[in-house]
Specification:
The complex is a heterodimer of chains A (about 300) and B (about 250). With about 300 residues, chain A is an all-alpha fold. Chain A contains 10 helices and 1 strand, in the order αααααααβααα. Chain B has 8 helices and 11 strands. Bound molecules: iron/sulfur cluster (SF4) (3 copies). The site of one iron/sulfur cluster has 15 residues of chain B, from α2.
Amino acid sequence: MHPAWSIIFFTSISGLGLGLSGLIVLGLLDLSRFLHLFVASSAVFGLISAGLLSSTLHLGHPERAWRALSQWRSSWLSREGVLAVLVLASLGCWFAWNFFFGPPPLWCGILILVLIVATVYATSMIYGSLKTVACWHHPLTPVCYLMFSACGGSLAFLSMLALFGQPILGILKDITLALLIGAWTLKYAWWWALDNRGSASSLETATGLGTIGKVRSLMPPHTSENYLQKEMGFVVARRHAIKLRYISIFFGALLPIICVIFNGSSAVLLGMATIFHITGIFVERWLFFAEAKHVVTLYYGDEQLSIAS
Amino acid sequence: MTSLPEPSAIKLGLVIDLDICVGCQACVVNCKEWNTSGYGAPLSDESAYGAQPSGSWLNRVHAFEAGVGEDAKTVHFPKSCLHCEDAPCVTACPTGASFKRAEDGIVLVNEDWCIGCGLCAWSCPYGAREMDPAEGVMKKCTLCVDRIYNENLPEEDRVPACVRTCPTNARHFGDFGDPNSDVSIMVAERGGYDLLPEQGTKPVNKYLPPRPRRKSNDESMSLLAMADAATPKGFWQWMDNTLEKLG
Ligand code: SF4
Ligand code: SF4
Ligand code: SF4
């Protein structure tokens, strides 16, 4: 699948923003000073809305984007939109409550956290629900999205605690480390599935000509690339993909883990860990698209949709 | 509404006969011609002429080779929207622009609502949807909904443009909901099948397989042998004999 920057940016950045807000609403951050409140809310709203805005840039008609809120009964993209709007609105209320009356009750935070988890899940299911892209249509797809959002959120949350001069409990660092290791282990399993799971579809089932024998593409229907090939015909060379997987693990897992273990109380190191992590996630997200093969590519002469080419 | 309607009693669609299609591309061109001036925005091209022509089309004809040796076949393979009963393109659409008509099962895009997100094209396993490069909205086969019910056209023209134009009659239009319709009978007799059945889309359009190659048998003979074997009669027998004597 074509790795569009707007979508890569959208899923990574709003995933980070949602993860961060999920932790902030649990009330561990001291927001009694206006400056803290300002920094935390700007970070959260900045990240989530930058992501959402970039996703609308991908559209042919951004001015009609509001229509995408209407079909939540059937469409994951619509659900994602509705949930993101709900999250932004409830976060707005939560921060306003903080400003006027001090910390809101914990149950409010937990309610918002549930909405946040649902939003990240909906984002992942935009892709995870597509049967046409075999490697996305896997139960680990939403799990990875949720875990990465939690990792990025925890790193950003630790940075913010350090920045505000609050003591960082050892358990928070341990949880962050555990999330990082868990997330990338699951991602590794996802990659393993991508390499080893075949597909039920082949050019024989796509044409129904398998009864005659092996089917080959003889002539494409057009002489230059069309929309389908531009959008769905992109597959990164496997040797590059493997290198990029390791690069993403290096930035997304190894460097942040080293930073946290080395000094999990320094705002600078934790900030760097967050930036390393999101860099790794950008690469991971690029690969998420670039490694994904759409079933329609069969018609254009892919011998077999065994995704391990 | 992008939730799917209850399956309709009338299921309009196409039968494509892979035994007959010669890959002339006439249906491709006539589809483009009709749809660039019909339903919705013109079907635009990014570049219509030159070395790298590109644009949006609703119907494309591939060519495949199947098998090896003397039973191998070259098959021309037209492909347009199959108006699936479980259309994943419809349920994925966030805006309600994509819909399946409850009355006859035709899958359409309301271009005034489409935001051009492209998710429906990602959901379609058959590559039946293409984004319009000028308009930024999704284009797909309309089953020529603006012809088949159009009372301003003479009756013989009230079929899809691709069906009307096909010089070999490889495309047929009809109601698959009616077991006695021409298309249903054709599918039953010739073993019409679904493309990518494992994708679970339940396409309405059906494909008829190429007929098996006629085997040569021992009694057949070459034209030369046939000419030799024929014994002339009457005048020709007389001439044959006379010429024989002369030689
Ligand atoms: S062929 Fe593709 S576009 Fe047409 S109804 Fe089926 S899934 Fe939708
Ligand atoms: S491109 Fe248009 S028709 Fe397709 S899913 Fe998006 S809004 Fe719906
Ligand atoms: S039915 Fe009409 S829109 Fe569909 S492929 Fe045929 S000519 Fe094109």
